[in-house]
Amino acid sequence: MALARAAPPRPALDPRRLLPLASVLVLLLLWAAAAAAAGSPRLLPGPAAVLEAAWTAAASGDLVRHLAATLARVAASFLIAMTLGTALGILMGRSALADDLGRPWLLLALNMPALVTIVLCYVWIGLTEAAAVTAVALNKIPNVAVTVREGARALDKGLQEMAQVFAVPRGRVLVHLVLPQLAPYLLAAARSGLALIWKIVLVVELLGRPSGVGFEIHTAFQLFDVATILAYALAFVAIVQLIEWQGFQPLARRLERWRR
Amino acid sequence: MAALTVELRAKRFPALGAAPAREVLGPLRLVVEVGETVAVLGPSGCGKTTLLNLVAGLDRDLEGRIERAPGPIGLVFQEPRLLPWRTVADNLRFVLGPLPDAEARIAAALAEVELADARELYASRLSLGMARRVALARAFIVRPSLVLLDEPFVSLDQPTAARLRLLVLDLLRRHRTTALLVTHEPREAVMLADRVLVLSGPPGRVRAVREVALDAAARRDPALVEAATRRLLADLLEPTSAVDAA
After folding, report:
1. Does the bond joining B100 to the residue before it have cis omega, within 30 degrees of 0?
2. Residue from the list B81, B85, B90 with its beta carbon closest to the beta carbon of A162
3. Using a CB-CB distance cutoff of 8 angstroms, which residues of chain B are in contact with residue A258?
């Protein structure tokens, strides 16, 4: 039967898979052409110059040191924001009282400019690592809470009743019943969270930390060293993409396995 | 002491938006003795599931009282209500918890419902018939003092439903479990229950109570079950029936 026939095997070089690669190549070519046309390696260095700047920074150990410092801050604020935001989101999604009380705070937090939170944290806590991480986490918690709240509202009532009748303890309900249903929401919050957090971490570093990609970009800015700025930015973009490929994508596949 | 005593004056659903408050169950008295299986038979909408929810403690808003012997409840919902993202064995482990003999009990429970081979399958991959059997295993694995069955055979094809009924019959007898079954199928009630409570409604009221005098072997014989069902229905249609007049 026509409908039962298997799909034709994929060609080894699927053109659909080559397209993104081609698109990156076009971007590099456009960049190189623009750099050549500008004729000012200081203002707009080409790909080769940026690669050279990255190589210099890597050879001196600076690149790794600053990337590591930034990554550590990203990881710390990410974990704090995900934990607190998830707890808050579940609470607000499950309890109408918590939702009513929390909503105005959430609205305020969501609309507070990141810069204000950062400056206030530095003023009130001091120019410390704790202040930096707190500022970034505070910026992200409301987004996580809003996303997770949606998930908590959509929890299956039938399964909840089942757990209630069988008197399943709360901890087990959370791990096996609630969190698997929240997984897509948590994953969405984590993915958008990582992208947001590392950008805010750079601002925090620029304003008050003696290390990290943000600090290096600040230094390079004062020296008008555009190649170094781009080298650090692209290095971090590469790392974030690596986390997506090696972390989030396999995790998403694992979490979705039961859907066949 | 009875395993379950229900003395209901009324069960009302509160007004919701434009819909006025309504009475779903009227005066209702029901006593289930230990080891007995009672079927609540009635048309859809007569409050059968509501009654089950009250007994299970999922709904505590009632006029009257419900008393239950201590011990866990095993509830088989109309839909299997398994955790789709967990395996069959994990679904049983979910209600059982980390007991020292958990693995042995899971293996035994799955063998009883003929699903030993399915233990590592995700619940999302089961057919409805298999999922229902897992739900049955889940209800019995907690060694319940009372099993509640809410139309456990609906939406199944005839042969599957028939096999499942025999399975429930076996499980109830082997575990000597007290059970309350809710169904709209007279045959099902006759085959499984020692006593049938016939509801009319809505609002649900007891129209008749009938003993089913079939021994274990007769319950496995479709012809005898059919005959007993016809007798029950004829009796219910008889206007001068003693219980109806009461």
Report:
1. no
2. B81
3. 84-86, 122-125
Left (φ > 0), alpha (ψ -120 to 50) or beta: where does A115 sit? Answer: alpha
For the entire predicted model, the pTM comes to: 0.80
d(CA A45, CA A32) in angstroms, rounded, equals 8
Positions in chain A whose pLDDT score sits under 70: 1-13, 260
CA distance B41 to B190: 10
What is the number of alpha carbons within 13 Å of residue A127 lying toward its C-beta? 7
| Residue B121 exposed, middle or buried by CB count within 10 Å (0-12, 13-18, 19+) | middle
Separation between Cα atoms, residue B89 and residue B109, nearest integer Å: 10
CA angle A247, A137, A111 (to 5 degrees): 115
Segment A135-187, tens digit of pLDDT: 999 999 999 999 999 999 999 999 999 999 999 999 999 999 999 999 999 99
> Residue A17: is it exposed, middle or buried by C-beta count within 10 angstroms (0-12/13-18/19+)?
exposed
Whole-number Å distance between alpha carbons of B135 and B78: 10
DSSP A34-51: HHHHH--TTTS--HHHHH
The interface predicted TM-score of the complex, written ipTM, equals 0.87
Question: Given an 8 Å threshold on Cβ–Cβ distance, is B57 in contact with A165?
Answer: yes
Would you give the end-to-end CA distance of chain B in angstroms? 26
Give the dihedral sign, CA A106/A110/A114/A119: negative
Q: How many residues are given for chain B?
A: 246
Residue of A nearest to B140 (CA): A166
Using an 8 Å CB-CB cutoff, list chain A residues near B95. 166, 168
Structure tokens at A98: 């918590």
